[in-house]
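Changelog excerpt

This revision adds worked examples to the README so contributors can see how folded entries look when concatenated. The first example is reproduced verbatim below.
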Amino acid sequence: MIGRRVLTGALALGAGAFAYASLIERNAFGVREESIDLLEASAQPIRVLHLSDFHLAPWQTRKIDWIRSLVELEPDLVIATGDMLGHVGALPALRSALAPYAGTPGVYVHGSNDYFGPTFPNPLEYLWKPSSGREHGEPLDTPRLEDLYTTLGWMNLNNSSGRLTVNGSRLIVAGTDDAHLGLDRLDSVAGTVDSTLESETEPLSAFIGVTHAPYRRVLNFLTTLGADVIFAGHTHGGQVCVPGVGALTTNSDLPLSLARGLSVWNHHDRSSFLNVSAGVGTSIYAPIRFACPPEAVLVTLRPRDFGYS
């Protein structure tokens, strides 16, 4: 009798936790705010809206409306770090979600789910090793996704770089294609950065690195290249976390302690700020979050204080 009660209680607890994770926390969208003292003393602050991992499906109207509402944060720059699509029919939904940002400067890179649709995961395997880049769903219309970004006026940073002027600050931006699929071409990125720097005639205020999957090789490369701050997604913050412990996986070789949030990445004698977003969505085949709510991130780049106390 006691054993049956224990089993019944365990099943009820598990069912309650699943209901909370799938119905409540998965839709508990929020904004994490960070600030970094990075710009020259006379510069105006730059409000960067970091968007990542929408995994958007056509029926997710609550998510679409929330993404649209973020324009009220009045970002000066939008950085999209990939996995925006979550369904073969998601492009019209994504177009609606991002329409308010037309004309706001932006940059983007792709994640694996901007190339291929989701597949049904093995949840036990997910906890002990990164998902395989060979586990593809059906191909998605990536060229049309890029056309959408072009209509917004956003810059393609997949293995590329460029320059932006935001609030009077001249920025160099460089990014990689999805490292999870092995599409990052670091030599190509270095070459484009060298060309950009050679053609620059005025001082630059900051170097921003952008990638989807924060593998160590990419973070080390961007830090060595001179990035002041790196924006990444992919990890979902662990997606299913243990309270008091944190993430059980980053789906990459990133340390678990860095699965979500603002930190400093050190490599040899250089360092970069690193912002990893837990993302807005989940795969339609794993629609749960626990102790890791969805997020967008507003990062304010502020002038450094050169004063003396």
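The second example, added in the same revision:
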Amino acid sequence: MTPLTPRPAVPDAPPADRHGAVVRVLFRVLLLNLVVAGAKLAFGYATGTVSILSDGFHSLTDGSSNVVALVGTRIARRPPDEDHPYGHRKYETMAAVVIAVFLALVMVEVLRTAAHRLLGSAPAPHVGLASFLVMLGTLGVNVWVVRYERREGARLGSEVLRADAMHTQSDLLTSLAVIGALAGTRAGYPILDPLAAGLVAVFIGHAGYQIALEASRILGDQAVFSRDDLREVVMGVSDVLGCEKIRTRGSADQVFLDMHVWFPGTMPLDRAHELSHVVKDRLMARYPQIVDAIIHIEPPPREREGADDEG
């Protein structure tokens, strides 16, 4: 089996601390995103610069997605219950999906605004020094936010933080495109303003696709670890004859595993049960992301077939 793309490192903080840390990161980023969006929108409306205005809408979705992520994270921290025996962790992943939906909506709005400017007869925007100062200042804030969320997302094993960092990273690209369009507009090419807004839409769409793809892997229960790697750990336990039906699913910090492990048919049940716990302990030591592992005890196929023939 071809090894899967490596998953992010297991979070350092225990579950209770992890959720509190994720919430604190999201609140800090939310405040910064609102400041950035407000500055771009206010300046875009004041000067009639559609590229800055579109970039402001893009930044505004960062704040909206932060609110959605906060709600999703709050639900995800609930412990397992009778209706959710595997916990509520996927609600955080679902929040990442909502972020992708926000990106799709803002992409449509940006394209509509850019098309209106290209096909209309609106006057060329006024581009002065203040335009560049606003864009460079907000660009610096976004650079810090991306690094901060990416670092904390890796440390805490949170896909919602990684998704939000990817969203904000698209702001860096759009801001650079807008700065280039402002320079072109100032040089006498006003058509670059709506064209830059269209480029913003491309960046937004790409970011939304990447977020949706990552979330779909988790919600679709894609295998997390290579079966060959897991089999190697299992075969290191004495008296294990083999294993099959190896299945894993989950997210970066919460993986569920089940497999069938073969022991000699003549082995006493209590001994096989004891060794199955050794298998489980070694797997969880090798992969701390595993929160639960179910080991099914079976004789090897040839012994099962022999028993069926005798019957």
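Reviewer comment on example two: The beta strands are 242-251, 254-262, 290-298. The radius of gyration is 26 Å.
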